[in-house]
Amino acid sequence: MPDTPISQDRLYDPILAHVRPAPLILKPDETLADALEKARALPSTQIILYCYVVDERNRLVGIVPIRRLLTNPAESRIADIMITDVVAIPSWATVLVAAEYFVNRRFLAFPVVEADGTLVGVVDVTSFTEEVLALAKQSFEGIFQIIGIHATRALTPWSSYKDRFPWLLCNVGAGLLCAFILSRYEEMLGIAVVLALFIPVVLALAESVSIQSVTLTLQNLQSGKVQWRALFRSVVNEAVTALMLGISCSALIGLTALAWQRNLVVAGVLTAAITASMVTACLLGVVLPTGLRALKADPKIAAGPIVLALTDVATLVFYFSVAAMLL
């Protein structure tokens, strides 16, 4: 157990720097009697929460809670009583990500494993300060609030309905507005019906990149007050990133459309519209949550649904405006 719990200024440290060796490691073919003998050999000050079971290559294959170790016959094999559905923290995790595991699943300790399942060590809940766990809870809750729901609130069906329905109205309103936009280009769609085939992929790309930007922005806003210089840097960084993402995705989709439909105009529409919509979506994902925070509003639960709604509308406007100009 670490002498000093991890403080909030270490949130983005690799968790590997804070992992300790597993106190009791077992093999599947050992018996409970073997395990108890190993446990008795440990120092009396050693706290054992779980026993970790590894194979001959030191890959984690199961865990045994202490209660199972004490309540089963001594001749029982570890393989017969271990839990094989193990939740483990990946070795690449930061302190914040690791703390989110404790907030989400409420276990007292987690194993830390490499990508191939090799057991590195363990980290327990006492490794973190209360402030770190509180920030992890906010971060975990924030990921769900991006889509308009609370993750940790115990809700009745009616309360859950009231929590979620207002934000779905953003999607309803955006959907109706998108339908209106489509109706304005009905004649053009009749001439170039192929444009309709690519509407789902254009919307999906813009929505995906907008949620990525919202998530990153909310994480950066956890410190509280809006830093306008940092906001400017974020806008510039996101704009450049979005431009590169847009060019890459639009080139891929445009070339696919050209090879499939043999229509250079459609390929051009897709390339221009996807690039413009992805840049706009990224910028919305930065500016809207920051603006809500500047207005002293909680940006988490409002930002996701509103950004998605605005992204859908902006994407269709770009798509059909470019199509109208080129056709």
Structure explained in plain terms:
The structure is a single chain. With about 325 residues, the chain is mainly α. The chain has two domains: about 10-130, Roll (CBS-domain); about 155-325, Orthogonal Bundle (Tetracycline Repressor, domain 2), CATH 1.10.357. The protein is about 60% helix and about 10% strand. The protein is built from twelve helices and six strands. The protein has helices at about 30-40, 65-70, 80, 95-105, 130-145, 155-185, 185-190, 195, 200-220, 230-260, 265-295, 300-325, and strands at about 25, 50-55, 60-65, 90, 110-115, 120-125. The strands form two sheets. The protein has a three-stranded mixed sheet with strand order 1-2-3. A three-stranded mixed sheet has the order 4-5-6. Helix 6 packs parallel to helix 12 (about 300-325) and helix 9 packs antiparallel against helix 10 (about 230-260). The longest helix is centred in the last third of the chain and has 34 residues, at about 230-260.
Keywords:
327 residues, 3-stranded mixed β-sheet, elongated, 61% helix, CBS-domain, 12 helices, mainly alpha
Strand-helix topology:
Layout: E1 25-26, H1 32-40, E2 50-54, E3 60-65, H2 66-71, H3 78-81, E4 89-90, H4 95-105, E5 109-113, E6 119-124, H5 130-145, H6 157-184, H7 186-191, H8 194-197, H9 199-220, H10 228-261, H11 264-294, H12 299-326
Parallel strand pairs: 1-2, 4-5
Antiparallel strand pairs: 2-3, 5-6
Helix pairs in contact: 4-5, 5-12, 6-12, 9-10, 9-11, 9-12, 10-11, 11-12
What would you say about this model in short?
With 327 residues, the protein is mainly alpha-helical. It contains twelve helices and six strands. Helices cover 61% and strands 8% of the residues.
